[in-house]
Every structure is written in structure tokens, then in C-alpha cells.
Amino acid sequence: MYKLLIRPILFQFDPEKVHYFTFSIIKFLNKIPGASAITRAIYCLDNKKLGREVFGLKFKNPVGLAAGFDKDAKLYNELHNFGFGFVEIGTLTPKGQPGNPKKRLFRLKSDKAIINRMGFNNGGVQEAVDRLKKNKGVLIGGNIGKNKNTPNENAVDDYKICFEALYPYVDYFVVNVSSPNTPNLRELQDKEPLTKLLQTLQEINRGKEKTKPILLKIAPDLTNNQLLDIIAIVNETKIAGVIATNTTISREGLASENKKENGGLSGVPLARRATEVIRFLSEKSNKSFPIIGVGGIHSAKDALEKLDAGASLVQIYTGFIYEGPSLVKKINKTILKS
User: Fold this and answer.
1) Considering only CA atoms, which of 44, 37, 50 is closest in space to residue 328?
2) Where is the active site (predicted)?
3) Which of 1, 107, 138, 188 lies 20 to 30 angstroms, CA to CA, from 157?
């Protein structure tokens, strides 16, 4: 029904406006008595065999919602009803910021892809914290970044602020230094600044009564030598794992008219490269740390490819938009059969 009826209507309108319209509809429907239970009955697949224990956390199933969809933690409880094993909120920054000028979100229908240059638009970490206090048992990842106007030499301070604010309310952290839409952010992926950033957060983490997993989200555009650096950094800083991958700046093989828009590309064209990165990290590290696989998952087959390449968990975003909420259940059903 989604692909035949709902998606064609939604795709007639501006994608960013549709995003917020859909949020309001989901929020409204879930206020109707019994609606949440009906949604769960349709989309959730509860089976103990789907359970996973990764970096010390117990996941009901291995399919999560990637960061960027619910940036401000406004809808994580309702989105969880579609069967996700976990929801990652953010990217959050210390101060609220509007992001880049509109128009900044583009569908590439012929390629089953999206280009975004949102620029970490969010209301600030404290607003998200206030909403996370209403969590009804959802396993939450907190994706954190720096404000656009914060120079890279002071970036560590922004990540520290977000870490401290979110610590009581999220189950794991994701350090985002790989978005292409914040000026100079990807420079923080270089070995020296990245090691310093992760070590600083780990020092804060170890000072807590209970440490929480810290993951690093990396770009798919890194070279093999850079990926080897990532493995070395993970082992040196002893963070919990890696999310592979963020969006790409590559435009190879695209057919859509708006393929030249600036920003990060997600969706089907990213699938192969994301899987290559997962396999490389898994093999070259001798599976020494968990990987969350994300990028171009539009079918159960796509998800299995990520898991077979070495991912412990997977996340979807663009596939959720193109294929609809039934994708989560389809993936979990196929995992049970595999």
C-alpha cells in the first residue's frame, strides 16, 4: 500500500516539508487510543532469535533507524512502533542551529537515492534531553557533532558538552566527524585530531559510574590507508566500534537530473561502497570491534549483505523512505530464515 498509494502522493511535494508533515501525522495518529498497539501488531516481529548483544547492550533485533531521521528526538517512541530494534537520534550540537539554507534535501527517484545538505539543523542538545526524559523503553543512540561556527581546534569542547548532557539518557554514543555538510568537519577524521577527540571522550566516559559505548561514524570516501588508520585509532582509544558509513560525496553512476546538487548522497548508489568498507574493516581488524552497517539498505537482501560482510547490526534511513515501514519486518523475517 505504501509504495503503490502513499509514496506517489508524498513524492509530489518538497521532501523536507513532507518529512515534517509525516512526523505530525504519525504523532497525531499515535495519540488515538489503541493506535500504537495496532502499529506494533502490524510491523513488529518479536522473536528471541532476533536478539543481539553488541558492545554490552541487548538489542531486541538488529535493525535500527539511522541518525538524521529523528534529529531532535521528537518521534523516537512512535518510530519504535514500526519494529526497530533501536533508534539513533541526532546529530545534535551544543547550541541549536538552523542548518544550511533551503532547499537542501533532494530526491533522486531514478537512483532510489537522496542528497542532503542539511548541515546539522537541530534545536540543541538540551531540547533533545527534555524529550528523552519521556523514553518508554526505546534503546537510544545519541549522535553528536559540533556547531558550524565552532572552529575545529575547539571542536572537542562541543562534543564534550553533548556527551555530558546526553549521558544519562542514551544507551550509546556516536561521534559524527564524517558529515560532508558542515565546513571542515571531515578534517577531524585525520588521525591526530580524531585520536585526541576520542581519547578525551573516553576519559570522561571512564570517570562515570558506568561507561557507555562510544562509536565512530565514518565516511565511505576514505581510502584504504585511511581505513587502516581508523582501525588503529579504534584499537588505541578502545572505543566500542564503528558505524559504516555516512553519506558519500561521490556521484558515480547517477542518472537523476539533480545528481549535481551539493551534499551527501544516500540510498542504493551507496550500497556497494558501504559494504566494501564494512568488509575491509572487519577483515583487516580481525573482527576486533563491532560494526553497524548502514548505506543503501532497501531490501532484506541488502541487509544480509551488510551482515555477511561483518556488520553486527544494521541501520536504515533512505530505504525506509523509499520502501516504507514494512522494510524493517521484511529484514527481520529474512534474518530468521537465514
Assistant:
1) 44
2) 179 (nucleophile)
3) 138
Q: Return the closest-CA partner of residue 248 out of 147, 115, 152.
A: 115
- Map grid coordinates 547490526 to a residue: 313
Does the pTM of the predicted model rise above 0.90?
yes
* C-beta of residue 277 within 8 angstroms of C-beta of residue 222: yes
Residues in the annotated binding site for substrate: 71, 116-120, 176, 181, 246-247
CB atoms under 10 Å from CB of 239, counted, come to: 22
105: helix, coil or strand?
strand
Assigned C-alpha cell, 164 = 555530558
Domains present along the chain, CATH in parentheses: 2-337 (3.20.20.70)
Radius of gyration for the chain, computed over Cα atoms and rounded to the nearest angstrom: 19
Residue 120 pLDDT grade (very low, low, confident, very high; cuts 50, 70, 90): very high
pLDDT in tens, 13-35: 999 999 999 999 999 999 999 99
Average pLDDT over residues 214-242: 97
Q: Which residues are annotated as a binding site for FMN?
A: 67-71, 91, 143, 176, 217, 245, 267, 296, 317-318
- Condensed to tens digits (0 to 9), the pLDDT of residues 134-147 reads 999 999 999 999 99
Amino acid letter for position 242? V
